[in-house]
Each structure stands twice: as C-alpha cells, then as structure tokens.
Amino acid sequence: MTSFQLAPSEFQSRAQKLLDYLKRQQMSGVVLFDNFHLTYYTGFAFIPTERPICFAMNADGARVLFVPRLEVEHAKAEAQVDHVESYSEYPDNPHPLKLFAEVLKRFGIQNRIGADYDGYPWILGYQGEALSALTGAPIVKVSKFVEHPMMLKSEAEIALIRESCK
After folding, report:
1. For the whole prediction, is pTM greater than 0.90?
2. C-alpha span between 139 and 135 (Å, rounded)
3. How far is CA 7 from its chain centroid?
4. Which of 53, 98, 130, 161 has the most crowded Cβ, counting Cβ within 10 A?
5. Are 82 and 73 in contact (CB under 8 A)?
6. Residue 2 pLDDT
7. Which phi and psi (to 5°) does residue 55 adopt?
C-alpha cells in the first residue's frame, strides 16, 4: 500500500541538513516565513494570510512553529516540529512578531539569524517590523540553501509523484 504523505523521517532528514548548514554558517538559528519553505521543512501546509506563521530552529536542532491560535490543533496534528507556540490574533497588541521575537530569545536564537526573509511578507494587509529590528540581530539570507533541496526530489517524493499520475 502506498502512503499518500511523506514519513516523519523525511522531514527529520531535511531538518538535519538545515541544522548542519546553520552550524557551518555559525548561526544561532534559522527562521522561515515562506509557506512553501515551511511546508517543505515541517509538513505543515497552509494558505498564507495576514496572520503570521513562522518556523524556527535553533543551533541545537529544536524546531518550533509559531501560529495563530486558530491553527494550533492543525499544527500539532500535522507539523513535524518539537514545539508549537501561538498568539491570539492579528492585529493584536502586542504584535504577534514581538511575541515571536520572545520565542526566538527563549530558544537561544538571538544573534546571526538565518532567514528566508527579514520578516513576515506583507500579505493581505499584514504590517509589521523586520525580523532584524525585532531581534537586533544580523539576518543571513538562506533562501538559496533552503530552496536547492526542494528542486532535487527524494525517492519518497518521486513515489508520490508517480502515485499522483495514476
């Protein structure tokens, strides 16, 4: 019987490669905002809205997904992460990304942060500060590294592609 989803080990392998990269680059952690990047590294699929959803991994390999409250159960059921953190709503006070900056601090992601973008994209009216402003840390662009393995399909991905052609 063919499974119609990737195994947790596939996401663990992807996270390990990302972890190895951030260690080689001497970063305290990595933050991903793009929905395709998040899905690739966590298995959590979502349609991006003005409510920020963010993934972070520290230099010890601890993975956290930061979601609006309405996504908590979905995230806990689907995301291949160690922790799910949430905020009540957007817009709200304090701003969700200020809360996310506190999550990053708790996870030791405080200096030299790898990120696909310097903050959550301005989607459907979202407005917020840059990640660099919120953390005071230099941001290292990691999009090229993050996207490269997305182009190269694993055996499990190829099996799913073949199944989808049936």
Report:
1. yes
2. 9
3. 18
4. 53
5. no
6. 53
7. -115, 140
Q: Which residue has 């941001």 as its token pair?
A: 139
The predicted-structure confidence for 44-54, as pLDDT tens digits, reads as follows 999 999 999 99
Tell me the pLDDT tens digit for each residue of 87-96.
Answer: 999 999 999 9
d(CA 51, CA 12): 26
Rounded Cα distance, 88 and 50, in Å: 13
Closest CA to 41 of 145, 160, 165, 159: 145
